[in-house]
Design goal:
This protein is mainly α. It contains 14 helices and two strands; from the N terminus they run αααααααααααααββα.
Length: about 350
């Protein structure tokens, strides 16, 4: 765990350096960490497509299985992917949107971001399944037998396939450099949403405080971001401990339920608390483009309904699973923590709504 702990500290230091100047430094870092993965991904797609058996892997990936649409697990996994890749329900889009110009065409931006996100996921899948097809070809097995889900795909199956390529060390380095860039880019957005909230609450610190007067080289922004990174590093140390993978699985399984609720409440608040038509008119005045009727229907009916159904299904799956991961069962204390993770974001939203009222 020493190596993992050092890697964790290095990651948080990198995150601090990328965000210490607020949205200005985060924006500059995003130019690198948001575009670098596309260049690396293109290299992996080209190299993977030239391997023996890659065609079978890509065919397996692109061939639709309509029968899977009837399984609730498929929809839960799809929604989880959208939540994590777009960062919805966690304040990231709201935080970044607060820094845009008042006449920014956010309707066009939202459409482009959504389409680019889905395209990126599909594009990455080509690289992944080309590698898996090659591995299946070399092992004499079908592609379905070598496919893994979850963290096993990124950290076991793909590196295992890359290790069989010529100059395997170089390709593995390129692949993990891409993962690091993606993780850092996502972490920048999450941290920026957190620090934006703290600044809005006036928690950045008093510039006349004795600590700032004695150490003038410390900027309030540095102190805010640095303290947030320090707390985050301490909490995330749990995931690099010996049972870290089980804590990660517990966290990953339970937190997403709360996001379903948060997204549903956000849509209900906009559609019925503020008014979908009124909100759309405000957007039209600023962006100069009308919000499509279908989007307004999503705010009012479709998204709250889907979030409710998926929240119930997710809760039922959690209760049925009993906090299991690879045969190991979570302790009662871990399950209590899991349910607190579920209810925590909802409690914060309710408390914030009461304060506003």
């Amino acid at each position: 765990t020493t190596e993992l702990s050092l890697a964790l500290i290095f990651s948080w230091i990198s995150l601090f350096l990328a965000t210490r100047r607020g949205v200005h430094s985060a924006g500059k870092a995003a130019y690198v960490f948001a575009t670098l993965p596309y260049a690396i991904l293109t290299l992996l797609v080209i190299r993977g497509s030239l391997l023996e058996g890659a065609g079978e892997g890509i065919k397996f990936y692109l061939q639709p299985r309509i029968d899977r649409l009837g399984h609730i697990r498929t929809w839960l996994d799809a929604f989880n992917q959208i939540i994590y890749s777009l960062g919805i329900g966690t304040g990231q889009m709201v935080a970044y949107g607060s820094y845009t110009e008042s006449n920014e065409d956010i309707v066009l931006d939202a459409g482009c971001i959504s389409l680019l996100n889905s395209f990126t996921s599909l594009y990455a899948g080509v690289a992944v399944f080309a590698m898996l097809g090659h591995k299946a070809h070399k092992d004499g097995r079908s592609v379905a037998d070598v496919v893994q889900s979850g963290e096993g795909l990124a950290f076991v199956a793909i590196p295992d396939g890359l290790s069989e390529l010529p100059a395997a060390g170089l390709w593995c380095f390129i692949f993990f450099a891409m993962l690091f860039a993606l993780a850092l880019d996502s972490s920048i957005a999450m941290l920026e949403s957190w620090t934006t909230m703290l600044r809005d609450f006036g928690w950045e610190g008093d510039p006349n405080a004795p600590a700032f007067k004695r150490m003038k080289w410390i900027r309030r922004q540095d102190a805010l971001v640095g303290s947030s990174c320090a707390v985050g590093c301490l909490i995330s140390g749990l995931f690099v401990s010996r049972p870290g993978i089980y804590w990660f699985a517990l966290w990953d399984a339970y937190v997403v339920w709360a996001v379903f609720i948060v997204v549903g409440i956000e849509c209900v608040g906009v559609a019925y608390g503020y008014g979908a038509a009124k909100f759309s008119e405000e957007v039209r005045k600023g962006a100069g483009r009308a919000v499509p009727r279908f989007i307004q229907m999503c705010w009012s009916f479709i998204t709250p309904f889907l979030c409710s159904v998926l929240a119930v299904a997710s809760f039922a799956a959690l209760c049925a699973g009993g906090g299991r991961y690879e045969g190991a069962r979570a302790t009662p204390a871990a399950l209590v923590l899991g349910f607190l993770l579920m209810l925590g974001p909802v409690a914060v939203m309710v408390a914030g709504a009461r304060d506003d009222c």
